[in-house]
Amino acid sequence: MRIGQVLLEAELISPKQLSDGLEYGTAKNIFLGKVMKLLKYVREEDIDRALHAQKLIIMGLSPVLAIRALKRSVKDRISLEQALQDEHLDTLCLAADSLKDKHLRCSSLELDNDDSLESRIKNGDRLLVQDCCSEALAQYQQALSILEKSPGADHIDHCPVLLRLGNTYLASNSFVLARECYEKVLSIRTKSLPDDHPLIAHAYESLADLYNAQGDGEQAISAFLSALDILEKKFRRNWARMRQS
Fold it and tell me: Which end of the chain, N or C, is more open, meaning fewer C-beta atoms within 10 Å of its C-beta?
């Protein structure tokens, strides 16, 4: 989970502030945490708390628990350690044990060693099935890098890998990154396919799953209705062709 998402999900910044911060940081080649302090969106001590929470998530602490503790730490102006104790620190021990088990499970998988696109995707799929999300992400990112070396940065052939990346981010509760992947898939397919193509509906369904996971029922319903509208349009056109034949 990136620091921007940690800050966003802890409600320390708004989506607009995250977008502005990423744009500013990219232009100035500055890390996002420093940008948030420079723009005075987040206090320095709260950035430190967020970085600490991010490190614990990487170590295996439940993101839900980490974000909840971070919110409490900021609200009550206490250390993250104290907030974690208030939120039951024994969960951290369970997370560490779970991380060890996951590492053993991931390391026991037989993965393809060649650097082909097909192997990267196949390895990612195997790892994701075993809930080895970070390892699966690495494989899918390598696959996307292979695709991006060919002409056309927004080629429709990129969509299956982008969807896998989005699904993996979603499984890791990395909602901002998942949304970026799904929206890119939707943009590519909308430009490349007929307006009633089922693959465009599928892209909307992926966004709906994301919104549902975030608890945003209104946006989830809107995305599902968009998918349904495309499928109904396809059905009506097919029906009209059948009647004419």
Answer: C
From the list 63, 66, 183, 41, the residue with the least C-alpha distance to 32 is 41
Where along the chain do its domains lie? 3-107
Place of tokens 């195997």: 126
Question: Tell me: the pLDDT tens digits for 45-63?
Answer: 999 999 888 877 765 566 7
What number of residues does the chain have? 245
Instruction: Enumerate residues 6+ apart whose C-beta is below 8 A from 16.
Output: none
Rounded Cα gap, residues 228 and 60, in angstroms: 38
